[in-house]
Design a protein that fits this description.
Blueprint (H helix, E strand, L loop, with lengths): L3 H4 L2 H5 L19 H24 L17 E5 L4 E12 L5 E10 L10 E10 L2 E16 L2 E8 L2 E4 L5 E14 L10 E11 L5 E13 H4 L8 E8 L2 E9 L5 E6 L2 E6 L2
Antiparallel strand pairs: 1-2, 2-3, 3-4, 4-5, 5-6, 5-7, 6-8, 7-8, 8-9, 9-10, 10-11, 11-12, 12-13, 13-14
Length: 274
Amino acid sequence: MKTNLFFKLFSALTLTGIILLSSCSSDTEQTADTTNGERASESEDLIQDAVATANDGLDGTIDGISNGRSQVCGTISNNATAKILTVDFGTAGCQGADGRTRKGKIDILYVGTAPQNSASRTITFTNYSVNNYSVNGSITQSNFQRLSAGSFSFTLSASNLAIVLSDGKTYTISQLQRTISTNSGVLQDLTDDVTTITGNSTQTNPSGNTTTVNITSPITIKGSCTVTGFYYPASGAYDVIDGKVTYTIDWGTGTCDKTISITAFGKTAIKTLP
């Protein structure tokens, strides 16, 4: 599927705010926590990869895009009676063309006669992991609309989605709402594709604290960036609100890179993501 390279930017799409927001060491030593921003991006990357893989499996292959990369790993089966398509990587897992090792299972419950044409899908992750990160729970993809030739939009929602980071700590997404719009341009040309994301979310960290994430400037994903290996948004911003503290994450103004700025307490730090 052509759009799967954009689903592979679900980090921007979910922006769940799985951020290790920490208190300042003192009232006089307030600085932007760059680790928070890095953890946010890494966690969101896990979710976006999971949704990308699920959507990739809808056409019966795990290949990134239709007629793109050759099938790499994962067993795909479709129970037409139950209307559930399953992508199973097994307990041992396998390494994809992107170098990531995936394990576990993804079940896609769809509406209609064919999973790839369904206007509504529920994607459930069971012991699904990518390298040292894992996700369990469900995401609903609905309200799929074709706006014009090559353009479409849909919404994503989730609740009680559990994310486990490499340090073993679990973060729970209690509320997620996203609206995604894509202009695909020429169907077989990824470089002219542009996707925008808006929405908000709420998550709870292991300490029981609640964090809210609001997209303040639409997150923009450019095909011209993804085809050159930059799997991050090219522009857009969101606020992470943790109690009385607001952290602003800014993806820039359109350049294909891995750089974000993190602003808190009146100070800004520039960080390069993995």
